[in-house]
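Section 5.1 Outputs to date
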Amino acid sequence: MKRWQDWGSLVLGVWLLLSPWILGFSGTGAAMWSTFIAGVVVAVMAYMHLRGGPIWEEWVSLLLGIWLILSPWIVGFRGDSSPTWNAVILGVLVGILAIISVRQPVKAT
């Protein structure tokens, strides 16, 4: 059972893992750790769902998308534009993919 959304979520998770170094905010502790941990969980949830996991993984991804959107204000790195925009944009994308996945029936491949 594989959907394009699961592959998209996996790519977004990997980007979140690598983005602190690619975008140059690995020295910003709160932003780096928030992004890195969210990336690990997004990637693991996508991988589990690619392996035929249950739908609750998509709900976890939706919550992570919401967390990413709010994290610059909650964790306190909203003053740094690079990690803030990264978190907000990726949060929106992760959330959209999760919503689409929950609403779309799974097709066997």
